[in-house]
Amino acid sequence: MGFQLNKLVIFGVGLIGGSFALALREAGAVREIVGVGRSAGNLEEALRLGVIDRVAVDVASAVQDAGLVMLAVPVGQMAAVMASISPHLSAQTIVTDAGSTKCDVVALAHQHLPGHLACFVPAHPIAGAEKSGATAASAELYRGRNVVVTPLPEIDPAAVSTVRALWETCGATVREMTPQAHDEVFAAVSHLPHLLAFALVEDIASRSDSEELFSYAASGFRDFTRIAGSSPEMWRDICLANRTALLKELEVYQAQLARLYAMLEQGDGAALEGIFNHASQARNAWALKKTD
Ligand code: NAD
């Protein structure tokens, strides 16, 4: 990229914030990286691993004269973090986030960063893992992945260009959407699957013979439930933040289950096979197209 950030401040030096820091450092796109966190242990790990150069002494001095502030905390923490930085932001400091939901983050920015909306770029990297914390961070996480940005009408185009350039430096492709469209799409293809994975594992785990059941679970169970190993706090926050869209998706899914239930009850193999065929073809076609 054509410029170097003087100071990058990461709130939440976990998988997502830490990977952003590592990728930009590796590309030589940033001079200094400052970490702000909730867990001293995680920040120490981040320092030891070279994800950040130093831990912030306080929020005011951390954000002062920063080129970019990245909010990579669970979405339930965004309000508190925005409120804490708001009085200390320099006019030219760009603020962006990596939250998995966008309507709530945009509403919070209106509430807590009203004077800074021209420099606030909401974003969501479509990359991740079921692992958390600085130890899970990788400079490669965003390579070949999409990042969705949902700029506000009041945005300064230069701020979007900078955030785009930084994500492209991480190896990602940037796409634009409205916050509403973003939240509807990801309710269907991300938030619903996570809810279902948690529900399935919970169903097995809360049975008296769960140990025996788990002992027989194999690769199908592993594939379906991998994401149930994700951070409970993060997913609580995402589900609550996007609950309107998620409830709609859950209703649609329940109707699908009801169809399958009726087919099973009636022993209707042809109907079941029809659905399985359609789904199997769609899944295989998707997997072929997907490069990440
Ligand atoms: P993580 O648990 O690895 O990292 C979050 C970090 O934020 C933790 O180190 C935690 O200590 C810190 N933190 C929490 N509250 C804080 C506060 N008030 N102030 C400062 N630090 C605080 O989680 P992650 O996977 O990196 O997720 C971070 C954000 O990225 C979330 O908003 C999540 O929705 C989003 N996201 C996650 C994924 C994924 O697959 N993990 C993908 C895309 C976006």
Structural overview:
The protein is α/β, with parallel strands linked by helices and 292 residues long. The protein is 52% helix and 13% strand. It has a six-stranded parallel beta sheet, sandwiched between helices. Helix 6 links the parallel strand 8 and strand 9. Helix 4 runs parallel beside helix 5 and helix 7 packs across helix 11. The longest helix is centred in the middle third of the chain and has 27 residues. Nicotinamide-adenine-dinucleotide binds next to helix 1, helix 4, strand 7 and helix 10.
Short overview:
The chain has 292 residues and is of the alpha/beta class. It is built from twelve helices and nine strands.
Our Rg estimate from Cα atoms comes to: 21 Å
Strand order of the largest sheet: 3-2-1-4-5-6
Characterize the biggest β-sheet. 6 strands, parallel
Overall pLDDT confidence: 97
Bound molecules: nicotinamide-adenine-dinucleotide
Shape: elongated
Order of secondary-structure elements: EHEHEHEHEHEEEHEHHHHHH
- Helix percent band: 40-55%
Total helical segments: 12
For the record, give the distance between the C-alpha atoms at the N and C termini, rounded to a whole number.
23 Å
Strand tally is: 9
Q: Which ranges are low-confidence, i.e. pLDDT below 50, for 5 or more consecutive residues?
A: none
Report the structural category.
alpha/beta
Q: What percent strand?
A: 5-15%
